[in-house]
Amino acid sequence: MTGILAGLRIVEGSAFIAAPMGGMTLAQLGADVIRFDDIKGGLDSDRWPVTKDGQSIYWAGLNKGKRSIAVDLRSPKGRELLTALIAAPGEGAGIFSTNMPARGWLSYEELSKQRADLIALNIVGDRHGAANVDYTVNSITGFPLVSGPAGHEGPVNNVLPAWDIATAYAAAMSILAAERHRRLTGNGQRIVLPLQDMALAAVSATGYIGEAVINEVDRPRFGNEIFGTFGRDFRTKDGRYVMICIFSDRHLAALAKAGGFADAFASIEKSRGVDLKLEADRWNARAEIVAVLEPWVASLSAVEVGAALKAAGALWAPYQTFRELAGDRDAVLDNPMFTILDQPGIGAYPVAASPVQFGAVPREAPQPAPLLGQHTDEILSGILGLPAHEIARLHDEKVIGGPR
After folding, report:
1. Residues 320-360: pLDDT tens digits?
2. From the centroid of its chain, how far is CA 298?
3. What is the CATH number of domain 9-203+331-401?
4. Which residues are catalytic?
């Protein structure tokens, strides 16, 4: 590894999104992330989306650039090997990340007996230890009851697993923070990161709880309107959709230039007694702004609308399907973050590297996700120093799995 985190080693026992994505984030920055799985495969090894022959595209996406060791997790010898791997010596080693139940042999108390300065991150459902996933956490945040069309009854679930993603990046950050603390003090520690608390912290930081308490209101649904300013979807002549926003006076001027709306905007300001350079006034006059923009967008094709908005420097974007995004030259095909990667068992498709660009270290190209147990032998020999005949015996006894 040659990335900015070269020399750091994390052992990961993970499933689903938050924990493996946190590890992948570190792997893409150059850390050696070793995930262990049972020799029969992990909990999410066949999770959708999958290829026509059942290979998990989801799993491959979240485990890029890692190494894989396959072990019989029920075997005392298998657990002994993993304990030794987690607690192996080395300045940048001794870091364990999991969203599995961290108890018994995987508990911080047991693992730290083998290495006193161990760093162990445990992602949990909530602070009480109850089971939770992104979608159950999201249900308590309030968002499902403000998402969706105005007047809709009942919750609208979020397709994007936002809380898993936020927790993944918080997990990576917390490991780096704990590793810095260890370098300064020599002390390891246990880190607990509740998925639910991650969501609640975000809801608090973005003002939703404050609004509810201070203003004593439950925010209603506003459909696709961006609350408190101006932004929404518009349908073009050829049945496509574009998002148009006004977040500053510069955006207002650019939009006026794109469609020749200066006089219409001035008329709105005069009749309503508002200043469209102000967010609150744009929100209060949103119906009048829509009445100006809607017929203009509807009279043009998506290409024509896009050309006018882009030329003027307006704040806008086209709505795209995932397939359209995959073929988008600017966003994906010509983006140096992406590489056409041939993932074994799946095929070749665009894969993103880390979005972070460091001036001192070149960005690591994305690497394929490992096959189950692909690196079992090299990990046991290279890190634990087991001789070839011992590794062969462990294979024969089915304590470990993967290519010899």
Report:
1. 999 999 999 999 999 999 999 999 999 999 999 999 999 99
2. 35
3. 3.40.50.10540
4. 164
